[in-house]
Specification:
1 helix, about 25% strand, four-stranded antiparallel beta sheet, mainly beta, Jelly Rolls, six-stranded antiparallel beta sheet
Length: about 290
């Protein structure tokens, strides 16, 4: 009799052809045939599957006493996996998470070891680090009087600007520029523009009298500016007259982008209407930005 209990399958149906029993108890192994359940099924202890199993949907609340869903092998989620609490991932292998091939993350992500980027990476939030105290737009070497071309502006109030590269995120307090041999005759005002030519920082209206022949002179911005780097910026000076001189970029130094914009004294263009894209000799100040 024990042998028969282990080898036969019992089918219990009511008049409508559905499974009519509330409980099916087997004392041995059901060895042949398939068991089809059209409604919900509750497994009170452990459900063991020795072969392939296709699940149309699985609703889980708790699969072990700690409240975790335990999966011994790989699991594929067809639509959305919602995690309401903390989630610890030992490893995540991704090929494509959206049609463009990008891995999309809605919040901050921490990479424990190495992040390898094989293509172009755009960092909209910049790079955090320990920025230098001064960021120069020229090589600060050699005699001050011969570092550039000593000249005054052609028209009072015109804006003259030169490129500077900011390597990382930094809060900037102001700018120091290199005066020429003639000083103390005109007021100077400084400004900082982003890579598109938009005004992002400047010294107070009215400017400050140029001071210190063939020397660097500093002037603070009206308020500190949080620059995002790596990125290109432009430092600019505007002078109320045509006597006070500054040292300008020459072909002897790094070929920074330099340019000039017609303006009225103490009125800063915003944006620069015709932003330069090449170097013009003897145009644009030699300066540094300081934090």
């Amino acid at each position: 009799m024990a042998k028969l209990q282990q080898t036969y399958v019992f089918h219990v149906k009511n008049a409508m052809g559905s499974l009519g029993a509330t409980d099916i108890v087997t004392t041995g192994t059901v060895a042949t045939g398939a068991l089809t359940v059209t409604g919900a099924a509750t497994v009170s202890t452990t459900l063991g599957v020795t072969g392939a199993s296709t699940l149309a949907a699985v609703a889980c609340t708790t699969l072990d006493p700690s409240g975790l869903v335990q999966m011994a092998a790989a699991a594929t989620v067809g639509t959305t996996l919602g995690v309401t609490g903390a989630s610890t991932l030992a490893a995540v292998a991704c090929t494509t998470l959206d049609p463009s091939g990008l891995v999309q993350m809605a919040a901050a992500a921490t990479v424990g070891t190495t992040l390898g980027v094989t293509g172009v990476s755009t960092l909209t939030g910049g790079v955090a680090g320990a920025p230098p105290i001064k960021i120069w737009n020229h090589v600060p070497a050699g005699a001050l009087a011969t570092r550039g071309t000593d000249a005054a502006v052609g028209n009072a109030g015109d804006l003259e600007y030169a490129e500077v590269f900011i390597p990382m995120n930094v809060t900037l307090t102001g700018m120091g520029w290199l005066n020429g041999t003639t000083d103390g005759t005109d007021k100077i005002r400084i400004a900082l523009y982003d890579s598109t030519g938009a005004l992002v920082a400047s010294s107070a209206a009215g400017g400050a009298l140029s001071s210190g022949a063939d020397a660097y002179q500093q002037l603070a911005f009206s308020s500190a500016y949080a620059a995002v780097g790596p990125a290109r910026y432009f430092g600019a000076v505007t002078i109320e007259g045509t006597t006070a001189a500054t040292q300008r970029h020459t072909t002897l130094g790094p070929l920074a982008i330099t340019g000039t914009e017609a303006a009225t004294w103490d009125t800063l263009p915003d944006p620069i209407a015709s932003l330069a894209t090449t170097h013009t000799d003897a145009i644009g100040p030699m300066f540094y930005l300081y934090s």
